[in-house]
Amino acid sequence: MPVQSRRRPPSPEPSAAPPRGASGIRPRDPKDGKNSKEKKGGKKSTKRSRRKDPLWARLVVILGALLMFSSGAGIVGVEAMSNQVNNSIEQENLLGDAGKSDAEGGKDLEGPIDLLLLGVDARARWDVNDTRADTIIILHIPASHDQAYLISIPRDTEVQVPAFKKNGYRGGTTKATEAFFHGAQNGGGWAGGAQLMAQTIKKLTGISFDGAAIIDFNGFKGVIDALGSIPMCVDQEVESHHMTLVNGQPKWNADAKKLSGTKKKVVHKKGCREMEGWEALDYSRQRYGLKNGDYDRQQNQQQLIKAMAKKAIDSGVMTNPAKLNALIKAAGKAFVLDTGKTPLVDFVFTMRGVTTNELVLLRTNDGSFNENAAGRETLRPISHEMFTAVKNDTLADFILNNPSVISKKK
C-alpha cells in the first residue's frame, strides 16, 4: 500500500494544526494528579494544547515501537480509540531543528524511520528545571520496515551541546544527560530539554529524527501494571539503590526512612521470572553494583522495552478493547510524544512486517567503559560507524560485519 504521509515541515503550517510551542511541560504534581504547563510569565495552566489531526497514529509510532510490534495482529476499534488517545497523550514539539528535512525523507513513511526515546525520572524532584535524561535510545526501522533496532547512548557520553536561543543557553561540552537539563532551563521545560537533546544527539551521530518521546519511567510502572507483569531476566545479582521493602511493600528509600515496620533491602536475584511494574522498573534503573555500570543498565532497559512489546502481543491486549483502554490511560501518564501526521491505516500497513522477534538490541562501545581524561565516556570508532550505518540505512550489513554490537540480552 503506498504511503504518502507528510512529516515535519521545515516551518509551522498556518492552518493544518494548532502551532506546537516549546513551552515547558511540568511533570504531574503528585498532590493534585494534574498535568500543567509553565508559561513564560510563570503562570500555570491546566489546559492542554493538542493538535487536532489524528493522534492515534502518534501513539502507534512510539507505543507501537515499544508495545505494538505486531505482524498482522488485530487492533480493535481503531477509529473509536483515536479520540481517547487524543485526550490521553500529551503532544509537544520535542525535535525542534533535529527533525528530518524533506531531502531526508521527511514527507513520507516509505524510507527508514528514526525515533529518539528519552527516559526521565520525575519522582525525586518535581521541578521541571531540574530534570535530566538518564536514558537515551535511538530506535531505527529500516526502509524495508521488517526489522527494528534499539541503540542506547551512555548518559555520561561527552557531547558538544549547541547553543539554544529559546532559553539563552550558549552551548558547551558536557555529559549527554546534561543536554536535557540545559534545554529545560529558563522556561524551556521538558519540550526545550528534548529539543536541545535531539539537536545534541544529531550533532553527535549525524542522525535526524522522525519523532521523539519523553518517557517518565515513574509513570511507566502503570503501563506495565496494565499488562499485569512482564518477563525479565537478571544476569547479575544487584541490590537496589532506590527502593526498600517495608512490611513487604516496595517504597522509595526516602519514604521508607519515614515509616515504621519491618524493613528489608530489595535485591534482584539472578534468574528469569515475571516481574510486576515496580520490580521491573527498579531493576532496569540500577547501574551501581553492575559490572559495566551504565552499559549493563542500558541493556536491561532495552530488555524492558522488548519484554513490554512481547507481553502486549502475547497477552492479547491489542485485541481486547478493555485492556487496550487501560493501556492507553496508563500511557497518558508515562509519555510525551512528537511525530508527524500519519494516518493510522498507513502506519499499520507500513509497520505490519515488524514483530517483537525482529526487535534487535544493540550496544555502543561493545558494552564496556571507554572514559577520557575528564572521566566521561567517549564513543569508539565502531560506534560512530554504527551511527553512520543508521543514517545511511545500512545497519543490517554493518551488524553482519560487526556482530559484537549485538546485545547479549534477548
Beta percentage is: 15-25%
From the alpha carbons, calculate the radius of gyration and give it in angstroms: 20 Å
The end-to-end span amounts to: 32 Å
**What is the overall number of helices?**
12
* Class computed from helices, strands and strand pairing: alpha+beta
What topology, given as strand order, has the largest sheet? 4-16-10-5-6-7-17
CATH domain topology of the domain at 50-228 and 314-405: Nucleotidyltransferase, domain 5
Index terms:
Nucleotidyltransferase, domain 5; alpha+beta; disordered N terminus; 410 residues; 3-stranded antiparallel β-sheet; single chain; 7-stranded mixed β-sheet
In words, what does this structure look like?
There is one protein chain. This protein is of the alpha+beta class. The chain has a domain at 50-228 and 314-405: Nucleotidyltransferase, domain 5 (2-Layer Sandwich). Helix content is 33%, strand content 20%. It has twelve helices and 17 strands. Strands 4-16-10-5-6-7-17 form a seven-stranded mixed β-sheet, with helices on both faces. Strands 1-2-3 form a three-stranded antiparallel β-sheet. Strands 13-12-14 form a three-stranded antiparallel β-sheet. The protein is globular. The protein starts with 23 loop residues before the first strand and ends in a 9-residue tail after the last helix. Residues 26-39 have a biased composition (Basic and acidic residues). This is LCP family protein.
Summarize the structure.
This protein has helices at residues 56-67, 78-88, 176-184, 189-205, 217-227, 253-256, 277-285, 293-314, 321-332, 344-351, 381-392, 395-401, and strands at 24-26, 36-38, 44-45, 90-91, 113-120, 133-141, 148-152, 158-161, 172-175, 211-216, 230-234, 238-246, 249-252, 263-268, 271-275, 335-339, 359-362. The chain is an alpha+beta fold and 410 residues long. Helix 5 (217-227) packs antiparallel against helix 9 (321-332).
